[in-house]
Amino acid sequence: MSLSSVQSTLSTLKSCQADIGACMDMISDVALGIVEAQGMNNSPSLKKLEEMIMECSRLDREINCFVESVDEKTAQVRNEPPEAMVHLRNSVKDRFSELMAGVSDADLQRHSKVVAFKDSIRKYAMQGQTDAENEEEELDEDIAVTQSQTNFICPLTQVEMVNPVKNKKCSHYYDQAAVLEMIKAKHKNKKNFRCPKVGCDNRDVQQSDLELDLVMKRMIQNHKRQSGKT
């Protein structure tokens, strides 16, 4: 086993993590469809989806623990004699087992996409109740925005968003592809990307500040269907 082959394996695993994240987003989107069609009502389908997203959370944590184990142990043998590589596999395996032994169900529940899954279902269910009852009372700002009050236009592209992401720092929305491209371009020129929303004082938007808002995405999709857009 060579260090270069180890790094190649880690790169592959990190690509797998991106796929896991995309799968978790798909699970959340399917869950919102179930809530929209059937409501919550202790749905067995929602329970199954929750089990699936928890399994994804575990897989993601396993990759993180494995990468940490490999990074830690390869750093130790990097400056040691070549024969030290012989024991690398076992030392990584032992360290991985130690790290995974410390992972609890509570840790898996705290995965950002598991939290988003539960929040999205709760918010969408409450949004549906609000629409059904046609109430005009003020509710919590982050769940009570009706379609008529919501601006679905990306401040960057000036067209309707496809995959809306919310800035956790300033709560503004952008289309995912547009904002990631802008952040990348700014960073390439060693500049910060400031929030394009007029009047916002957030002068350093980072990719880590952004989270896909599946409730907003479904609202946009429903708006398109109702307005006859394709």
From TrEMBL:
Q: Where in the cell is it found?
A: Nucleus
Which intervals of the chain form a coiled coil?
none
SUPFAM superfamilies linked: RING/U-box
Matches recorded under Pfam families: zf-Nse (PF11789)
Which UniProt keywords are listed?
A: Metal-binding, Nucleus, Transferase, Ubl conjugation pathway, Zinc, Zinc-finger
Give the metabolic or biological pathway: Protein modification; protein sumoylation
According to the UniProt entry, its GO molecular function terms are: SUMO ligase activity; zinc ion binding
- Annotated ranges, domain SP-RING-type: 139-225
| Record-level GO BP terms | double-strand break repair via homologous recombination; protein sumoylation
> Which CDD domains does the annotation name?
SPL-RING_NSE2
Q: Which family does it belong to?
A: Belongs to the NSE2 family.
Q: Which PANTHER family match?
A: E3 SUMO-PROTEIN LIGASE NSE2
Name of the protein: E3 SUMO-protein ligase NSE2
